[in-house]
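FORM 7B: Structural annotation worksheet

SECTION A. Query
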Amino acid sequence: MSPEQLFLSIVILLATARLFGELFRRIGQPALGGELLAGMILGPSLFGLVNSNEGLEMLSSIAIFFVLLFIGLEMDVRQVMKTGKPAVVLSITSLTLPFLAGYGISVLFGIGVIPSLFMGLLLSVTSVPVSAMILVELGILKNRIGTTVLSAAVVDDIISLVILAVILQLAETDGATIDINALGISGLKMTIFLVGIGFLAYLVYKINIWFPKRLEWFFVKAKTREATFGILIVLAITISLLAQYAGLHFIIGTFFAGLIFSEKLLGKKETDHAYGIVSGITFGFFAPLFFAIIGMKFSGQSLAESIPYLVILIGAAMATKTLGGYLGARVFKFSNIESLALASLLNGRGTVGLAITTLAFSVGILDITLYSVAVSICFITTMLTPILAKPFLRRVEVIKSENV
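SECTION B. Predicted structure
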């Protein structure tokens, strides 16, 4: 493919994705919904104006790097620590039920074990960026419900990506004969990597109080304002490569690199500057293209054969995620209506769901039919989340005003 053709495809995808993303924002929905829809319209399923090619696939791989890096940067482990047990318990209860439901339903429909495990995982995730976006638009990011939802989403995504790493390890076997020794070595390498990341995060968050000051002189003397961004990218790529060498996918390392990169490491001013650059690059260029390319690969023809499976999975995803969240919230004395509001807000699978779906498709865990089912689940549940949550949130406000 010539550079001119690649740039033409990028221009068409990016312009249409940004247009549809803006339209979705104006109707109170996350922009990624419009960006996905743009890809579906432009791709082979409808008009066929843009087709997948080697250049776009390479661009998609770079895009997923920035998307996962941003997701990691967006998370604040300290917020989870402040929220404490409610966030952890809420995450576990709202993750377990959907996982079991997704796996069980998939097996009943004759899906293989590894793809079934992934579909269970997909139903379990709660996307931090999408959740934050929805909470901001609903005006509840800083209240008790908002902070609990966001903290639970952080824990949820961390656990989900660890489970994904295990599924990727299992996917490397042929399913018929499992080499216990090879599996044990792979598990050991993965454990060493995760323990190393945990130790590094501990050093950054708990012990390191002098490192930012030592680097302050460097940033003052540096001739370029993007020095911090360069350090962030080098750090992220290095950890991503270590994850790859440990037998994990590189985006697992990318996510953890974003998670441990904080103001404790390089200071608040420099970290905020690097975060701003990553945010601009991600949401100005890579994320719209990433979601449009995902939509472009969507196959309406393949999906048509799996409508019953899709409908049942979406119903199970919404019901079990809400039930699990509700039970977790009630344990910690949230009122009945607060628990329903909180639980309904956990259903936005968006960014994280689409990122892991793309990865699963690229390594062969999902075929085109399951890929289209997974994309549809992420799209529909994310669109339904604010719609379902608003009545409960209004009722919470009414009850508060009556008690004043």
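SECTION C. Observations
DSSP finds 19 helices and no strands in the chain. The longest helix spans residues 368-403.

SECTION D. Sign-off
Analyst initials: ____
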